[in-house]
Specification:
heterotrimer, A alpha/beta (342), B alpha/beta (261), C mainly alpha (363), A: 342 residues, alpha/beta, Rossmann fold, 12 helices, 12 strands, 43% helix, C: 363 residues, mainly alpha, ABC transporter involved in vitamin B12 uptake, BtuC, two-stranded antiparallel sheet
Chain lengths: 342, 261, 363
Amino acid sequence: MKLNSLKYGLMGAVACGAMSVSPTLADNVSACLITKTDTNPFFVKMKEGALSGAEKNGIDLQTFAGKIDGDVETQVAAIETCIASGAKGILITPSDSVALAPAVKQARDNGLLVIALDTPFEPADTADATFATDNFKAGVLIGEWAKAKMGSDAANAKIALLDLNVSEVSVDYLRDQGFLTGFGVDVKDPKDIGDEDDPRIVGNDITQGNEEGGRKAMENLLQKDPEINLVYTINEPSAAGAYEALKAVGREKDVLIVSVDGGCPGVQNVKEGVIGATSMQFPLLMASKGVEAIKAWADTGKKPENTPGLDFYDTGVQLITDEPVKGVESIDSKAGLGKCWG
Amino acid sequence: MTETMKPVLSAKGLVKRYGRVTALDHADFDLYPGEILAVIGDNGAGKSSLIKAMSGAVQLDEGQIDLDGEPVRFPSPMAARDAGIETVYQNLALSPALSIADNLFLGRELRQKGVMGSLFRKLDRREMNRIAREKLSELGLMTIQDISQAVETLSGGQRQGIAVARAAAFGSKVIIMDEPTAALGVKESRRVLELIKDVKSRGIPIVLISHNMPHVFEIADRIHIHRLGRRLCVINPKEYTMSDAVAFMTGAKEPPKELVA
Amino acid sequence: MALLIIHDSNAFMTKNYEHALPDNKDGPASFEEHDRSFINHIQHFFHRNPTMVPVIVLAMSIVVFGLVAGTKFFHPFNLSLIMQQVSIIGILAAGQSLIILTAGIDLSVAAIMVLTSVVMGRFAVVYGIPIYLAIPLGFAVGTFCGYLNGKLITLLKLPPFIVTLGTWNIFYALNLWYSGAQSIRGQDIDSTAPLLKWFGERIVFFGAQLTYGTILMMVVFCVLWYCLNRTAWGRHVYAVGDDKEAAELAGIRTDRTLVSVYMVAGLICAVGAWASIGRVGSVSPQSFFEGNLQSITAVVIGGVSLFGGRGSIMGPLIGALIVGVFQSGLRLSGVDVLWQVFAIGWLIIIAVAIDQWIRKLSS
C-alpha cells in the first residue's frame, strides 16, 4: 500500500509504466482510478476501496493521482493513458469540474465508461455517472446542527467560513453554501462563495484544506473580528488548524467548529470536543460502487442510475456529534470511529 | 645571470597532452633568484600550459619540476601555493563583492586567539586589516583609502594591484604573473609595471607572461621564447630588438645557435 | 604532433603595440573619479548597503498600510501575528539565502522541512522514542537531505536547479510514503511528546504574542549573520557565489564549501521543521507545499541576488516580513486573496529589477 503510493506519486514513471503494461489476461476487464492527489487520506482510502473492489470483481485497476489539488494536466495525461491502455472505464475525482470535460468526452467517445467519484462534473452529465457525497446536504446537516446548538444565539452568531482555495471548486461551494443554507443564511448565488451580505458572516478565507492553512485563515479572520463564535471548515485538517489558532488566543472553549469529512482523526477530534460536529462521507463506498458499475458495464452494457431526484448517485452522509440536537439525525463519535476512514 | 647561480625554479622535459594535441613537448624552464623572467610565445605555443604546470593548475604527463633544487609535485594550485609559488591569474582570482582585506586573506584567514577563535571560529578582523594595510603601503598602493571597500568598486589597475599585493604578501619564493597589463589602459599599465619592479626589488623572482612587447622589454631581465610547445631560446632584452623577438617566436627567423636551449 | 598555432603576426603586433601609444586616451579604466549624478549616488548607496532597499520598502509599506487599514494594523497583536505567520517561511528563507548566496537555488527546502517534521513526529509520537533523541534524529535527516543535494551538485556537476527539482519530488514522495499521508493530531502530540510543540509557546506583553518560533527565526538569522560575516567559512560562501573559479584559484575548496552550505541549509530546514510543529499545532504532511517558492520570494525581495555572492543575510528576514505586512495589510483593508497574490507577484519583479540595476555598477 505504502509502496504503491510512493510509486504512484511519481507520475511520469507510472505513465510510462502503464503504456508498457499490457493486460495479462485477455478477458480481464481493466479500469483506471484517477484521484485528485495522493496526499489526502480521503483519496488514499478511496484507492484502498477501489483496489479491493477490483480484486473481488477480477478487474485490473491502474491508479493515478495529481500532484496537488487542481493539478489538471496530470489528470488529463492520466485519462489519455487510460484510453491508450484499452481500459473499459475510468473512475475519477476531477481536480477541475469544467476543465477536464474535453478529456472525459474523448474517453467516452472511445467507448469508456467514465464515473465521477466524490466531485461531480459541471454539468454532471459530462460523466456517465457520479458517485458522490451530497456535499450540499453535508453542509446543510452541520448548518442545521449549529443553528439548533446555538439556539437563540444563532441570530447574533459571528461566523467564520474557512474554504478550500481560490478556484471555488464544486465541493468547496456546495459545502459552504449548504452550511449557510442549513444555518438559515440567504446564500444569493448558490454557486458563489462570499457573495452573501448577512451581517453575521465575518468573512471567508482559504485553507488549502490543511492544518497550516486552517490556522492562518482562522488567525486572519480573528483579526477582522475577534468575537467569532462559529467556524465552518471545509475539512477536518483545516478544522484542527483553526482550533490551534483559537487556542492561541484562549478562545477554543467558546467557539463552535463544524466540518465535513469523517476521517478518523476528525472523528477523534469530535470525541475530544475540538470539532462540534462533522458530516461523514464514505469514500470506500464510492470506490467500490464505482468498480462494480464498471464491471456491470463491461458485462452487460448497463450504465448506473442516479439517486431519484438528484443528478448523481448519493453514497450517503452521516452527521457525527456527541451533542445531538433535536431534528437533526446523528450518531455519536464512538459509533463514528467504527465507520471512519483514513 | 651567471651560470654558477642555481635556479630557484626549474623544469625539465615537461610534456602535457590534451587528447591528440600536445601543448607541452619536452619543455624546459629556468628561473634564477631575483630576476624577472618574461615568457613570450605565439598563441597556442603552450606558454599558458607551462605556467599552469608550475602553479599546480595543470597535471603533467611527463617531466620534472625542481624548486630550490628539490623535485616537487603540485597536484593542486594550493599545493603550489603552500610551496611558496604564488600566481596572479589573468582573471585575478578576486571575489569582487568581498573587501580588499577579505580578498588578500581569502583561503588563509586569520582567526582570533582563545575561545572566540577556536570555538566560535571568529575572524581576527583587526589583525587582517592591519596586515593588509601594511602590505598595500609597502607596495605604494595606499591611495586606496578604505581597506574594507569591495574590490568591485576599484579600477582595473587597482584590482591588479590587489592581486599582486596578495601574491607578494604570501609568495615566499616565486611569483607568477599572467598578462598583468592586458586589460589595462596606459596609465594603469604603468603603475602595475612599477609595482612589479617594487616586488622584484624585494628580492622575489617573478615569471611574467605577456603579449605586450614594450612592457616585456622594459622590465624583463631575460626573455624565455616559447615555440611549438618547447623553449626555443632565452634572450637578453638588451641584446635583441622587439622585432627579433617576434621573428623568433613566430618562426620567421632562426635564433643564433648558442642561444638555443 | 598537432600544435595549435595561429600565424597572424601582423595582427598580433598592431594589437599590442597600440597599448604603448602615449596618446591613447580610451583606456578601459582610470583612477579618476567621474562626476556622479544624484541617481548615481543612490545607486552607489544601495550597492554598499544592499539591505537598505528592503528596509525602506518595509518601512514604507508599514506606513501605507497603517494609514489604509487603520489602527487594527498597528495593534501589537497584529504586528506580532505577522511575525508569527512568517516565522516558518522566514526560517526556510534563511537556509535558502545561504544557497542563493552561492549562486545556487534550493527547490527542496520545504520538502526537507516537512519530511523532517514527519520523521520527528512519528519517532516521538508513534514509536514513542524519547524527544531528546527524536529531535536530533530529525536534525540528522534534514542535514543528510542537504548533504545529498550538495553531493549531487558537486559530484555530478549538475545545476542546483535540476538537482533540487529532483530531490523536491523525492523528498515529497518519501514524506507521503512515510507519513501514509496522515497528519499526527495536536492532541496526540500533547499527550506523548509536548516538547515537539515547544516553539508554539508564547511570551505575551502589551497585547503582543511573541512565540518561541518567532524568536527562533530571529536567532537563526543572527547566527547566520555571524557565520557569514565573522568567520572564514562565511567569506568563502560569498567568494564561491561571487566567482567560483576565482575562489578555487584563490585556494578555497569550493566543492567542500558548497556541500557544507547545502548541509547547513538542510539543518536549518530541520530546525524549521521543529518550529513548524509548534506553529501548525500538528504534524501535517500536506502543509507548506509552496514553502520553497515562498522562501525564494522572501530571499529575492530581501535583495539577495539570484546570481550569487551579493546581499546581506538580514535581507531575507526583512523580505519575509514585507510579504507578511503586505498580506496582513491588504487583508485588513478588505482586499481579496487573489489581489494579495497579485501584489506579491509585482513585489518579486520589482525587487529583481532593482537588484539588476544595482548590479550594473559592478560589471
